[in-house]
Amino acid sequence: MLSSQDFRKYAHQIADRMADYFEHIEQYSPKSQVSPQQILEALPMHAPEQPETMEAILQDFDTIIMQGITHWQHPSFFAYFPANNSYASVLAEMLTATLGAQCMVWDTSPAAAELEERMMQWIKQAMQLPQHWEGVIQDTASTATLCALLTAREQYSQYAINERGFENDKLTVYCSNQTHSSIEKAVKIAGIGKKQLRYIATDEQFAIRIDSLEEAIRKDLAEGYTPLVVVGNIGTTGSTAVDPIDAMGEICKKYHIFFHVDAAYAGSAALLPEKQSFFKGLEHADSYVFNPHKWLMTNFDCTAYFVKSKEALIRTFEILPEYLKTQHDQKVNNYRDWGIQLGRRFRALKLWFVWRSFGVEGLQKTLRTHLALAQTLYQRISTHSDFEILAPMHFNLVCFRYKPTNINNEETLNLLNAQLLERLNQSGKVYLSHTKLNGKYTLRVVVGQTNVNQTHIDQLWELLLHHKQVLSN
Ligand SMILES: *Cc1c(COP(=O)(O)O)cnc(C)c1O
Q1: In a domain, 26, yes or no
Q2: CATH number at residue 401
Q3: CA of 276 to the centre of ligand 1 (A)
Q4: Is the CB of 291 under 6 A from ligand 1?
Q5: Which atom in ligand 1 lies closest to the alpha carbon of residue 140?
Q6: Which of 129, 233, 388, 448 has its CB 3.0 to 4.6 Å from that of 124, i.e. a possible disulfide?
Q7: What is the DSSP letter of 35?
Q8: Are 387 and 398 in contact (CB under 8 A)?
């Protein structure tokens, strides 16, 4: 076991390693190049019987673990959506780990509960979210969305399904065909059933078609279903498409349907007045989720979940066994009742560190830098005759493909772009991912790394030109 002196020594060493890592991160390939089982085979089959030295552990960390790390903080990580980070966030996590507090109720760390309450207020205010909402931190957007579906289910049944289970409830859920898979997962887990999930058609911008949505609702009503939830997107995963939130809200009001809005990635953009138009109509929502752990320099995990009715949320999740009763239950927020888990990490601390150390203006500046850099890439791709833009760019995700003028066969193009992606990622210099839009194999470049700058965009562009050239030969 380590002594307090050892701890001090290694803590200093590790702090230096952390700083070195961030400073020299570009020496690594953004995408780990190991093959399946490689790391597993390098690890001993059994736990050590005797204590090992920290030197030995750190040595193996360097030689075994680091090889199998994909460097999410690398400025040329353009894949998926980022999980970006910052010095302030990491410093806060060091303290969180040190305190090791389990923040299930107010009593188990009053500061954690009250800082969380205040952070959700800061976010709500700075992002111009409806002021009557109340927020809570969840681990991920998937969990928040499950909470939304369960709350809707209980509100509809007057909290009876929690008691008696399902009877003959024929509930349906609606979302666009571009919606994240976490909705499907939540529909399954909430007992609603995947067969009752209606994927609604989208328009040429990949936004939900309002007429199709209403048609589907009417059809289900006529067939004896109860439309339970409509999910709206602000920034779909495939192409950051934005659904018409205002119009969806009106429909939900008309048919008394619970309205959940998923802005997991693009929600950070609500900090920018020039992007507020995408959030119009949000006051109709019953619940709303976005991830500071994607594009707001807060290390994974940290999800902000807001609800119109905290009473409904709490009534859905509340439990009060004798051993959890405290004196202050009436006066404070006991967040164990605001979601699925009982035990909770102290996640508010990193938000506090990040928001104070950047300031709102600093956060805005970083987001605007990313948006501007994405524009420069979009410009190049859209004006080059061998590339084709495949979706409107509302934020900082460029969706495109290689399309030489002489090739028109869709299958060939799909194959060619899959090859291009493979080549780019194997270069060890960048990491991109893909999706399919209207059946077309689409390359995705998300410009959202904390420290990405023009040189990284220029390098990516050079690589694109180079590898498409190699492919055409
Ligand atoms: C990333 C993403 C999710 C899932 O986020 P987790 O926090 O990983 O659960 C959900 N919806 C959208 C639109 C996303 O982009």
Answers
A1: no
A2: 3.90.1150.170
A3: 20
A4: yes
A5: 7
A6: 129
A7: P
A8: no
**Strand (E) positions, 124-279?**
134-138, 171-176, 197-200, 226-233, 258-262
What does the mean pLDDT of the chain come to?
96
**Which of 325, 354, 383 is the last residue in one of the domains?**
354
| pLDDT tens, residue by residue, 78-130 | 999 999 999 999 999 999 999 999 999 999 999 999 999 999 999 999 999 99
Q: Is 240 in the pocket of ligand 1 (CB under 6 A)?
A: no
Residues 295 and 316 in one domain: yes
Q: 179: Cβ below 6 Å to ligand 1? A: no
pTM (2 decimals)?
Answer: 0.96
Residue nearest to atom 14 of ligand 1 (CA): 264
* Angle of helix 410-426 versus helix 454-472 axis, rounded to 10: 130
301 Cα nearest atom in ligand 1:
7
CA–centroid distance, residue 462 to ligand 1 (Å)? 31
Is the predicted pLDDT of residue 233 greater than 90, yes or no? Answer: yes
| Domain tally, the chain | 2
Going from the Cα of 236 to the center of ligand 1, the distance in angstroms, rounded, reads 9
Give yes or no for residue 313 having a pLDDT over 80.
yes
Q: What is the 8-class DSSP label of residue 72?
A: T
Q: Is residue 291 part of a domain?
A: yes
- The answer on 239 and 382 residing in a single domain is no
Which of 354, 373, 407 finishes a domain? 354
Q: Which residues contact 463 (CB under 8 A, 6 or more apart)?
A: 424, 427, 429, 430
Which structure tokens are listed for 267?
A: 């929600």
CATH number at residue 340: 3.40.640.10
Is 142 near ligand 1, meaning CB less than 6 Å away?
yes
Please tell me whether residues 254 and 398 are part of one structural domain. Answer: no
